[in-house]
Structures are given as structure tokens and as C-alpha cells.
């Protein structure tokens, strides 16, 4: 695939947020368009890179990742395609040739990486044993190979479901680097009450486990969703004793930490080592505050760092806000134009219906497109990070059924007719018909004789649980950013649900500079993607970032970029590189 972007503005502009008549767009003064060259899968060794269509006289180069960007010609590479080799690892591939009579340069967004090591394919349940009364089943592949393994909880209060396999082969942990595993938690708001997913490597009685779960919510927004597909990753040096354990045979254990009713269906696939991607930083700005133009933009532009701004058209040109001319200048300098979730920066969840919220987001998109700022319009944010408005969910830790529609429990407080009932062996779609007493309810379906944990969920709200993220996904939005993030995530093998419609991002305002730097260090160590978001550059004020911290963070990122340790990309560039990439084994 080939992608090309011109950092320019075309079409019409609309000044302010009240939809006045369009005005002609001035011709911007910009550099020649940047031509990006993409690769198959993740661009690692063995993957195919293609020169832009129509390029002749092609010559391939290896480009250094350091600031000098020294190019070394590949003597035997002059075809229109090139398969990455081991000698290319740690460089960026570049083609130089002629298009339309002019000499042009096309650069890959990917950096050539080594091929991952497959530790376990999870193609079948053979060799696996269930833990904590879980049920195991084979299912179609979700990331790699011919299949995956599904773990189903059975309502056990001993802990969440899990699996183990005593022998996944002979491996040398000194070569592991970053370890990653693909997990699909599903999107069922009733049963998929997962709070964490953990990975342990074993050798006999020895256990090698990180101090924190492999996967947990990466954002702190109230009632964080933890659904969908995702890659969990950790560097082997973060697991005590693993790198020094020496080569030998290993086993694997996965455990799922859940809430009531402890009956999720979780699919696991593709445990791989040497999985780290190109460390990447994304920088975004909220609320279109004027200091983003007066302070942040010139400081970043002088250091060749691009970012992105989220537009709320109703705020443009207001007090202490950016003007359209300022936004246009930033856009023409290569910044992305992302969408605020609403026209005036109000919560999406305050709209009367889900359809109304989506229509308003489309209005924001229409405004951006009418003003010629089309790049970045597939990416949005949830104002204040709110993507759901879910009511309290009653639970019972010992609901007793006897093969009829009657269920008894110690307390029926909060349970209402019409609520959906979740529990192991409870037929899907079962609801509460009536609350008969403080200890008894009647259900819409018979449930076998058992004592299990139940939850009771009201899905009548337009914005309950997963509805808004799934609606954005169905509407074609690629990434929808949350707030109050807690770190970085792996995007090398594709941008999954966690990096997509519930994208984590880290606020610079509520962390110290040292804490922000440590996040960058972890992203470099693991080969992950890390997003920072800012509001205004002010010395004081809730949610604001002072200039010393802002400049210190940018300087830290730039120093590591110039040393070849990371890339700084817009979301458009990130998606071009990783959005549809996949595991190459």
C-alpha cells in the first residue's frame, strides 16, 4: 500500500462557530508533499515494501533513525518492491526515484524490526488445563494460526477463570525482549465484567510474573470500560528473574480477574516474544485554547514536532480560544485536525439519544471538511472522557435457583423489573419479571438448580456501558480517545479495540515531569505507543500545564527522537503505519 499526504488546506473556510457563509481559502506556503511508503503486515524482516506507483529509476536506501538520517544505498535493490532483510533491522527504508519528471523521496513509516518469536499459538485446547472451574473451548483464530482458546467462567467465587499449559517448548528468555499476548474480552456488558488479565511463565515449580497484570484498564475515567480486543505487553526485564533464568522449557498460565457474575468468555491467542514495536509518541490538544498556538505550536514547530488539535466549532474564536486562522496555520504545518465529541465541548452522554450524539459528531466533522481541514477527521475524543452513563448494578453473591423461574437471595434491594440477569447457566436475555419480596424475585426463564453469583443490569439508557463506543466503531471512527490514562500500549500488530474506540491517553496536567518522562522510558523499553494530551499552557489552573513542564517534556521526547529511540507521529500517520498491520507469523 502507498500513502501520500500534503500538509495543506483546500476548499472553503467558515470563520467562527455559527455557520456563516464560506470564505475562500488562502494558498498556504508549505513544503512539498511528504510521500509515505507502507509495508505488508508489520514491516518486519520478510515483509514487502513497495515504491510509489509510477516511480521509475528506483533506488532503495537504509536510513538511520538518528537525527542525521544518514542514507546508505542498498546496492542490489532497484526494483519497485523490496523484501526487508536482517541487515535492515533498526533502519527505515527509503526509495528515491522519478515521478512526473521530478526526483522524489518516499519514506516508510515503519522501522524494520526482527520477526517475533512464537511462544504459544493457542490453536487448540490440547495440553491446556482449566483453573478455577473454568471451561475451555477451541474457537476460530483471532490473531494468528488456525484457532484460539476460549476461557469461560462458571461463576466460581474462588477467583476468575484461567488456564495453564506446563510445556510451551524450549526457549531462551535472554532473547525475549518484549512479551505480548492477544486477548479478546468481548463486548457483552452483562457477562464481560473483567477487571484484569494476567500472564505467568513457569518452569516446574518456578513462576515468573510481573508485579502488575499484563492487562488492565489504561484510563481512570469513572466506570472505565474494559472490553474488546487488545494486545497486552511487558518487557522481560520487568519480570523478576526471567532474563537470568537461562534457556529451558517453559509453561504458561493465564488468569482472569472478574466481578460478579464471574462468567465471562475470554479468547486468548498468540503469545509472542520479541514483540516490541517502534516506540511512538502522539501529542494532542483539547479545548482549542489560545496558548496552544502562542506557546505550544512555535516551540514544537521549531523542533520539528507535530501534534493534533480537537476542534469544537462552537468554541472557535471565543475568549482565550483559537481562531480559525490559527487553526489553519497549525493544520498547514502538518498538524492533524481531530474531532471533539460535540460541537460545543459538552458531554456526548448529555444528548437525548445516541443517534443525536452521532449526528452532532457528524456536524463537527462536516465543519472540519467544509473548512478544508480533512486530515485527522477519523479520530475523535470523548469530552471529559465520558463515554457511558450507566446506573448502579445490583449483585447477589449467592442467588439460589431450583429449576423454575424463582430465584432467592439475601437481599433484593435495587433490583427492578425489566433488568437483564447475568449468571452462569442463566439463559441469555433473561430478565426480572417481578420483585416478590426482600429475598425473592421471579425471572422470565427457568434456571437450573444451583447457587451462583448474579448481576442485574439496566440497559435502557441510551449511553449505558458499551453503546457509544460500539456506535462510533460502527460509524467508521478509527480512534476515540478517553482521559486520565495510565501508560502506553502495543500497536505493532494492529490497532485493536483498546487502542481504537477506547484509546488511552495521559494528561500532562496531573503528573510531574519526572512521571511523564518515566512513561516515555517505559514506551521505549517495551516498544509501545504513548499518547499525551494537554489543554492550555498556563502557570496555574485546573487541568493546565505550566510552560516549564511542557518544554521539559517536549525536550525529553525530542532528545530521544534525535537519538533514534522513538518516533513522534500524528494519529493519521500512526494509523497509516499500524492501523491495519498484523502479526507476521
- DSSP helix fraction: 10-25%
> Quick one: how many beta strands?
35
Instruction: State the end-to-end distance.
Output: 20 Å
Largest sheet: 8 strands, parallel
Shape label? globular
Unreliable runs: 1-32
Arithmetic mean of pLDDT: 92
Q: Which class of secondary structure composition applies to the elements? A: alpha+beta
Number of helices: 7
The Rg value, from CA coordinates, equals 26 Å
Strand content: 25-35%
Protein name: Polysaccharide deacetylase family protein
InterPro entries: Glyco_hydro/deAcase_b/a-brl
What topology emerges from the helices and strands here?
Layout: E1 2-5, E2 12-13, E3 23-24, E4 34-37, E5 48-50, E6 56-63, E7 71-73, E8 81-83, E9 92-99, E10 102-108, E11 117-120, E12 129-131, E13 135-139, E14 148-152, E15 162-171, E16 178-184, E17 194-203, E18 206-209, E19 229-235, E20 248-258, E21 265-273, E22 280-285, H1 291-301, E23 308-311, H2 324-332, E24 336-340, H3 354-370, E25 379-381, E26 395-401, E27 406-408, E28 420-422, E29 432-437, E30 440-443, E31 450-457, H4 467-474, E32 479-481, E33 506-507, H5 513-526, E34 529-534, H6 547-562, E35 567-568, H7 571-579
Parallel strand pairs: 4-10, 22-23, 22-34, 22-35, 23-24, 24-25, 25-32, 33-34
Antiparallel strand pairs: 1-4, 2-3, 5-8, 6-7, 6-9, 9-10, 11-21, 12-15, 13-14, 14-21, 15-20, 16-19, 16-21, 17-18, 17-20, 26-27, 26-31, 27-30, 28-31, 29-30
Helix pairs in contact: 1-6, 5-6
Amino acid at each position: 500500500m502507498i500513502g501520500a499526504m500534503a500538509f495543506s488546506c483546500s476548499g472553503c473556510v467558515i470563520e467562527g462557530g455559527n455557520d456563516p457563509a464560506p470564505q475562500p481559502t488562502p494558498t498556504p506556503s508549505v513544503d512539498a508533499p511528504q510521500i509515505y511508503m507502507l509495508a505488508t503486515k508489520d514491516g518486519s524482516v520478510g515483509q514487502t515494501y513497495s515504491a510509489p506507483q509510477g516511480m521509475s529509476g528506483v533506488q532503495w536506501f537504509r536510513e538511520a533513525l538518528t537525527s542525521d538520517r544518514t542514507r546508505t544505498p542498498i546496492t542490489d535493490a532497484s526494483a519497485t518492491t523490496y523484501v526487508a532483510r536482517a541487515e535492515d533491522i533498526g533502519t527505515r527504508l527509503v526509495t528515491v526515484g522519478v515521478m512526473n519528471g521530478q526526483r522524489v523521496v518516499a519514506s516508510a513509516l515503519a522501522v524494520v524490526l526482527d520477526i517475533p518469536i512464537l511462544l504459544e499459538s493457542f490453536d487448540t485446547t490440547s495440553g491446556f488445563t482449566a483453573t478455577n472451574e473454568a471451561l475451555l473451548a477451541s474457537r476460530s483464530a483471532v490473531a494468528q494460526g488456525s484457532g484460539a482458546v476460549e476461557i469461560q467462567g462458571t461463576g466460581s467465587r474462588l477467583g476468575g477463570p484461567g488456564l495453564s499449559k506446563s510445556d510451551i517448548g524450549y526457549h531462551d528468555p535472554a532473547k525475549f525482549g518484549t512479551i505480548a499476548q492477544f486477548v479478546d474480552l468481548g463486548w457483552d456488558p452483562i457477562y464481560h465484567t473483567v477487571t484484569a488479565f494476567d500472564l505467568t511463565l513457569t518452569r516446574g515449580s518456578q513462576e515468573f510474573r510481573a508485579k502488575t497484570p499484563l492487562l488492565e484498564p489504561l484510563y481512570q475515567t469513572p466506570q472505565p470500560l474494559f472490553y474488546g480486543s487488545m494486545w497486552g505487553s511487558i518487557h522481560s526485564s520487568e519480570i523478576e528473574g526471567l532474563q537470568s533464568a537461562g534457556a529451558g522449557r517453559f509453561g504458561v498460565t493465564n488468569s482472569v480477574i472478574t466481578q460478579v457474575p464471574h462468567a465471562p468468555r475470554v479468547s486468548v491467542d498468540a503469545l509472542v516474544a520479541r514483540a516490541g514495536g517502534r516506540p511512538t509518541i502522539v501529542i494532542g490538544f483539547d479545548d482549542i485554547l489560545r496558548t496552544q498556538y502562542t506557546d505550544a505550536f512555535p516551540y514544537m514547530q521549531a523542533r520539528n514536532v507535530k501534534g493534533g488539535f480537537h476542534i469544537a466549532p462552537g468554541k472557535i474564536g471565543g475568549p482565550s480560544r483559537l481562531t480559525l486562522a490559527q487553526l489553519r496555520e497549525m493544520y498547514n504545518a502538518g498538524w492533524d485536525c481531530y474531532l471533539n465529541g460535540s460541537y460545543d465541548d459538552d458531554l456526548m452522554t448529555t444528548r437525548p439519544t445516541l443517534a443525536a450524539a452521532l449526528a452532532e459528531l457528524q456536524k463537527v466533522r462536516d465543519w472540519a471538511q467544509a473548512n478544508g481541514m480533512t486530515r485527522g477527521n477519523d479520530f475523535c475524543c470523548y469530552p471529559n472522557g465520558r463515554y457511558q452513563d450507566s446506573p448502579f448494578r445490583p449483585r447477589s453473591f449467592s442467588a439460589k435457583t431450583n429449576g423454575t423461574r424463582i430465584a432467592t437471595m439475601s437481599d433484593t434491594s435495587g433490583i427492578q423489573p425489566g433488568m437483564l440477569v447475568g449468571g452462569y447457566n442463566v439463559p441469555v436475555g433473561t430478565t426480572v419479571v417481578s420483585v416478590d419480596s426482600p429475598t425473592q424475585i421471579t425471572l422470565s426463564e427457568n434456571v437450573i438448580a444451583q447457587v451462583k453469583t448474579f448481576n442485574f443490569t439496566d440497559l435502557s439508557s441510551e449511553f449505558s456501558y458499551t453503546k457509544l463506543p460500539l456506535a462510533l466503531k460502527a460509524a467508521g471512527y478509527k480512534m476515540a480517545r478517553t482521559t486520565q490514562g495510565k501508560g502506553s500500549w502495543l500497536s505493532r500488530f494492529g490497532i485493536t479495540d483498546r487502542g481504537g474506540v477506547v484509546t488511552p491517553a495521559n494528561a500532562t496536567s496531573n503528573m510531574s515531569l519526572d512521571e511523564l518522562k518515566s512513561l516515555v522510558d517505559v514506551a521505549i523499553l517495551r516498544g509501545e505507543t504513548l499518547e499525551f494530551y494537554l489543554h492550555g499552557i498556563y502557570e496555574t489552573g485546573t487541568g493546565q500545564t505550566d510552560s516549564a513542564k511542557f518544554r521539559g517534556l517536549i525536550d525529553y521526547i525530542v532528545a530521544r527522537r534525535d537519538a533514534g529511540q522513538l518516533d513522534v507521529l500524528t494519529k493519521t500517520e500512526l494509523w497509516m503505519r499500524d492501523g491495519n498491520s498484523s502479526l507476521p507469523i
